[in-house]
Write a structure and sequence with these properties.
This is Small multidrug efflux protein. The chain is mainly alpha-helical and 166 residues long. It has one domain. It has 7 helices and no strands.
């Protein structure tokens, strides 16, 4: 049985190889918008596909950040509509939601944003932060920092491995 995420990654790699050089960063940005691929996975796809590491990292990070921004803004609007309709009353939280709340109170927006990619896609973390009432611009700023950090780290590792192996 094949892994759908592996198939998707291979599909993006094949697409990067099949399009003209000027279009390749757009494919990498699209890959960056996919949960679980993220900016760092997209950068890897681009680098392996022959794109310069800096271009691949920027394209992957921008695609990831644009998707996160859309998720944050949509979640914020939904949260506003729901809390307005309920009159601000809170319903009982699920165990998963309680676990997230504990992590948020322990690490704050910065910690959850920076450490979140170890466990969840940035889109999921951003939606969870926004749904708790963290201001959207604050979520986007910290998610941008996390995306830049993780994409840069993975890009440096992959570029180093390719340079060492090549």
């Amino acid at each position: 049985m094949t892994n759908p995420l592996s198939d998707l990654i291979l599909g993006f790699q094949d697409l990067v190889a099949a399009v003209p050089d000027l279009v390749q960063p757009l494919i990498v940005a699209l890959a960056g918008a996919v949960p679980f691929i993220e900016g760092e996975g997209a950068a890897a796809i681009g680098i392996i596909g022959g794109i310069h590491p800096v271009v691949a990292a920027i394209a992957g990070a921008v695609g990831n950040l644009l998707c996160v921004a859309v998720v944050v803004l949509a979640t914020s609007r939904v949260r506003t509509a729901v809390t307005t309709r309920r009159g601000g009353s809170a319903e009982p939280q699920s165990p998963r939601r309680q676990k997230f709340e504990r992590a948020y109170h322990r690490y704050g927006t910065a910690g959850v944003s920076l450490l979140g990619p170890l466990l969840l896609p940035t889109q999921f973390t951003a939606a969870a932060l926004t749904s708790t009432g963290v201001p959207p611009l604050r979520v986007i700023a910290w998610q941008a920092a996390a995306i830049a950090l993780w994409t840069t780290a993975v890009t440096l590792v992959i570029a180093g491995v390719i340079r060492f192996a090549g």
